[in-house]
Amino acid sequence: MNNKKFTLIEVLVVVAIIGILASLILPALGKARKKSQMSVCKSNMKQLHMAYMMYTDDNDDYFPFDIVDMSWNDHLAGYDGRKVDYADLNTNTPLSASQYSGGVYACPSDYLERADDTLTLSYSPTQLTIHGGSFINTGQRGITGIHWGSGAPVSLQISEINQTSSTMSTFEYMASNNSLGAGGRHPSKYGGGGFSVVLPSTFFANVDNIPHEESGKSNFLFVDGHVESLTSQATLSISGGGVGTASATTGTMWDAHK
């Protein structure tokens, strides 16, 4: 029998076909991978909601908050599946990546580098700022804030929130100075005075850093426990009509006091 050999033209045609197939398949695989990452982020946020609920059950219905040496996520240790020594929680420095894992606080779409030996923090609760004990900042009407001294916690009781299905509790925020475990004050190497509770204005000033850029959307956790993928502008819609702004969130999804 005569052995029929491939000609150079036939080989080139086969290579060209493989190249075309690869160009069609690889983008689809990339999109599937990104959708998978977005789903993992949603799962993380739902687990955070469960940690919130267990924490509020043990703390007079209040959400966790930042203090000088402990962040809101430090307060959730023990409710979120982590085992962290109290001595490592009660500091104003981030947890050590060589000693602990990020757990549900790290979104797989968060590729930003942190300082050496620090853990990724990809989420923030909505911020609450109360002036003089009674006046709430119009752009900071969230569930929790920073507590500097004596008195009541600077956070809401979940029973105080009337519209739980349209009120956000937590959102994705990815920045190099957001590290798991940092308290109310960061040393300069960890962000120069930043907080682990992020302002809405800070979020909207950095919307180009959408974590799931292929969809132009971020994941948002609501007080009732469901998670939605929304554009940043969609979160500023006001029930009944109108649109808020980053500095005036009254009536929007960022407003836990409506």
How many helices? Answer: 4
Major sheet details: 4 strands, antiparallel
How many structural units, i.e. domains?
1
Beta-strand percentage range: 5-15%
N- and C-termini, Cα separation: 86 Å
Number of strands: 6
N-to-C SSE series? HHHEEEEHEE
| Rg result | 23 Å
Taken from the alpha-carbon principal axes, the silhouette is globular
Q: Which stretches are poorly predicted, pLDDT < 50 over at least 5 residues?
A: 185-194
- Give average pLDDT, whole number: 83
Q: Given the helix and strand composition, which structural class is it?
A: alpha+beta
**Helical amount among residues, as a percent range?**
10-25%
In which order are the strands of the major sheet placed?
Answer: 1-4-5-6
Question: How would you describe this structure to a colleague?
Answer:
This protein is 25% helix and 11% strand. It has four helices and six strands, in the order αααββββαββ. The chain has helices spanning 8-58, 72-75, 86-89, 200-204; strands spanning 123-125, 128-131, 135-141, 168-172, 218-222, 227-230. The strands form two sheets. The chain has a four-stranded antiparallel sheet, covered by helices on one side. Strands 2-3 form a two-stranded antiparallel ribbon. The longest helix has 51 residues, at 8-58. Residues 185-194 have low confidence and may be disordered.
